[in-house]
Amino acid sequence: MDTSVWSLALRRDAPAGRAEVGMLVWAIESGETLLTTGLVLQELLQGFAGPKSWSQIVERFSALPLIVPDRDDHIEAAELRNHLRRKGVQVGTIDALLTQLCIRHDLTMLTADQDFTHVAEHSRLKLWARP
Fold first, then answer.
1. What is the pLDDT of residues 19-53, one digit of tens each?
2. Per-residue CA distances from 7 to 51, 82, 85, 87 (Å)
3. Rounded to whole angstroms, how far apart are CA atoms 128 and 21?
4. I need a labelling partner for 57 at 20 to 30 A (CA). Which of 11, 39, 64, 99 fits?
5. Residue pair 34/60 in contact by the 8 Å Cβ criterion
6. Residue 107's CB: how many other CB atoms inside 10 A?
7. pTM over 0.85
8. Exposed (0-12), middle (13-18) or buried (19+): which is 6, by Cβ within 10 Å?
9. Would you say 36 and 7 are in contact if contact means Cβ atoms under 8 Å apart?
10. Is 10 in contact with 40 (CB distance < 8 Å)?
11. How far apart are CA 108 and CA 57, in angstroms?
12. Tens-digit pLDDT string for the chain (131 aa)
């Protein structure tokens, strides 16, 4: 890989056999630097019922540094979203902000969400790609 810093935007419903999941396991076992945001943590927690799953997610994510967006990130994410819409790509507010954070911090995004493929075609977003 050309970078050892990854941003995670994995979906909670991604099958365990997906290449992205294998890459995440490899990155963890190899000691790669992994980063995420509170947005990803919040989305994961909103999708789980039961205190055991909830506490496991909170515990495991506590080991990951969080990237916190600032005012400029929100402004740039809005501009990015407008740019993408003009290109015919619909992207949600949170996905635009996740994209902006990766661009600002020069991170490679590891995600199972195929919507980011379209975003990357029209932005500077770097996505992990299967070798």
1. 887 888 888 888 888 999 999 889 888 877 778 88
2. 26, 23, 24, 25
3. 12
4. 99
5. no
6. 21
7. no
8. buried
9. yes
10. yes
11. 22
12. 334 355 555 554 555 557 887 888 888 888 888 999 999 889 888 877 778 888 888 998 898 999 999 999 999 999 999 999 999 999 999 999 999 999 999 999 988 888 999 999 999 999 987 66
For 51-76, b/e burial (b = at least 16 CB within 10 A) is eeeeeebeeebeebeebebeeebeeb
Residues 87-99 as b or e (16 or more Cβ within 10 Å = b): eebebeeebbbbb
Query: CB neighbours (10 Å) of residue 31?
Result: 8
User: Hey, is 116 helix, strand or coil?
Assistant: helix
Q: What is the largest distance, in Å, between two alpha-carbon atoms of the chain? A: 43
3-state SS, 20-83, equals: HHHHHHHHHHCCCEEEEEHHHHHHHHHCCCCHHHHHHHHHHHCCCCEECCCHHHHHHHHHHHHH
SS3 (DSSP) at 110:
strand
